[in-house]
Design a protein that fits this description.
The chain is α/β, with parallel strands linked by helices. The chain contains 9 helices and 13 strands. α4 packs across α5.
Length: 256
Amino acid sequence: MAYRHLPFEEYFINTSEDYTHTGKVTYPVVYTAVRYCTTKIGRALGLSHEVNYEIHYEPERDVIQMHFQRTLGFMDWFANIFEFASRYYEAIEFEGEPLQLRVHHGWGNMYRAIKYEVRDAWNALHEQHPSAATEILGWSLGSGIAALCCQDLNYNFGLKSYLYTYGSVRPFKCTRENRTRMRRYLDTLCLDCENFADVNDLISYMPPFRGFVMIRRVDVGTEKKRSFFRLLNPLKYHVHYDKPDLYPKENKEEIM
């Protein structure tokens, strides 16, 4: 069966749990919650983080689909804002040379907390449906976790997935010396990558520091130019990815 993607706005509505109340959810996503703690102090105080994911098989399109949930609660915001870059993997091999892969510390910890469960769940579905394509979806914080999952499944299984994210953050960290090679490496991970980011969505520029990158940013927006004042309105520009007119024309042509 040839792969066919859904309208991009539909992925957002599903993975955001119909955040904008359109009533158009086509697949009711029920997340699995995993709690974890990364510090002795946190364990002593009873403080923990929570990361949420969902995975299922869609027989109509022969697709394994994975969702990662957005920011929820104080501890998610703590991970977003206060936990920055750290070493995620030891150096990986790329183009015959070591490449040190670094990511945002908070999101790296989140994905590490669920990576074995995610790998097992994906592998079990893949064994049942070996011809199925894999879609990985996320919004906001979930976009960062989705990108790390995309890299992880590629690194461990050779999977080239379809990555669709919204209000996409920048989870990977490169240095001046490896920036070009890092971008080439990230470009090898997917069959297709559409990290949709409104040009006035402040969250899509996070973290706001040099060296942080996403796999492939696709600029969208009802206003084509970035504005300082629009960037101060994430309640508008971070949540409107359910609008079909944001997406390229081929979005409508391909699904027909």
